[in-house]
């Protein structure tokens, strides 16, 4: 039989676990399934109310029917598919191996504290990815080089603004403006300048929130899904505003 303290500890862990998953870019039904799986490992029923900014959790002991409630804010983590995969596997491990709460907490802390990919490595890979998009849409080698350098400049600025916790809509507007302005140097050369400018901001497209929003709506989590889609739409508008500033500055060259 669980004590009130142990039930509270289980509730706090599941609340933190589910909030970390939501913050790291997991769709809602997966968070609910994983959390309920951990609840099964401790013989408790888990009820989750997932919103865009916070989670309301209730766990009920199957033996005593004692309930425990937790409310936790969803933190803003970088999207990490590695974290998502390892934390999902951890829920299965908790169920299959009947891990104690101490063992489960230790493994959880080890996963979330693992070293992240170096920002410089991410910066270079994003540059190559955008240059590849430029080639895919018909850009030539000169445009690819310009897009690579423009992307690195814009993405580096985005990283620095995020470190300083500047509003992410402003971050997207400024990053899109700087990247597209750098890409507008393609107008000087005999190259595919329109493609260079258009693809220079593709690294900002919020693909994961858009996909998760659609999945949430389809699976019945309409409130969370529409919140994610709304935020993604506002980010897309921010990208368009930043790109529009550049177009207003170089419109005569384009004509």
Structure description:
With 255 residues, the chain is mostly helical. It folds into two domains: 4-113, no CATH class; 119-252, no CATH class. It is built from ten helices and three strands. The protein has helices at residues 4-23, 28-41, 81-97, 101-112, 119-136, 141-163, 168-183, 193-199, 207-218, 222-254; strands spanning 44-50, 54-61, 67-73. The chain has a three-stranded antiparallel β-sheet, with helices on one face. Strand 1 (44-50) and strand 2 form a beta hairpin. Helix 1 packs antiparallel against helix 2 (28-41), helix 5 (119-136) crosses helix 8 (193-199) and helix 7 runs parallel beside helix 10 (222-254). The N and C termini lie far apart (77 Å). The relative contact order is 0.11. Pfam families: ThrE. One of its GO terms (molecular function) is transmembrane transporter activity. It is found in: Cell membrane.
List the helices and strands and how they pair.
Blueprint: H1 4-23, H2 28-41, E1 44-50, E2 54-61, E3 67-73, H3 81-97, H4 101-112, H5 119-136, H6 141-163, H7 168-183, H8 193-199, H9 207-218, H10 222-254
Antiparallel strand pairs: 1-2, 2-3
Helix pairs in contact: 1-2, 2-3, 3-4, 5-6, 5-8, 6-7, 6-8, 7-8, 7-10, 9-10
